[in-house]
UniProtKB/TrEMBL annotation:
Keywords linked to the UniProt accession: Coiled coil, Hydrolase
PANTHER family recorded: SNF2/RAD54 HELICASE FAMILY (PTHR10799)
A Pfam family annotated for this UniProt entry: Helicase_C
Coiled-coil annotated spans: 126-156
Coiled coil among keywords: yes
Organism: Sulfobacillus benefaciens
Keyword Hydrolase applies: yes
Protein name: Helicase C-terminal domain-containing protein
Residue ranges occupied by any Helicase C-terminal domain in the UniProt entry: 1-102
GO molecular function: hydrolase activity
Amino acid sequence: MKRQDKEDAIRQFRDNVPVLVSTESGGEGRNLQFCHVMVNFDLPWNPLRIEQRIGRIHRIGQEEDVRIYNLSAAETIEAEVLTLLDAKINLFELVVGELDMILGRLTKSSDFEDMVMKTVMTAQDRHDLKRRMDVLGEELREAKNHYDQIKQLDENLFERLVADDE
């Protein structure tokens, strides 16, 4: 769509139309805090892109509880990745920006999508894929635990600084 057509579609969604079906490009640079329900039916493998989508509606100015629904076909890689992200790092409970801190520790020089793709491509069979995804899940859990420890240290330090200033 042309830029003006996108703007018109968003305005119609906000004012008159109860549902907007959008491709990945529909979310670029959009603030959709007038919306409070999102259904992801084409989940990307990159959790930062999922976080970005959620951030479009879960922003300052949002007046409703935000509900996110993620659709995936059973026994697919997409379902495995979604389960991994939810079970190991509680992706949908993180504050925007925290995910980058967790994945940054985990992925070093490659990105998460590459890690998943390598895991999928090198698996010998479904059982091996499950085992490899479990290993990746443990790495995610460890990265999340490390982040939580750093976050707690930061909070303790901040509390001391505030107490010292009083």
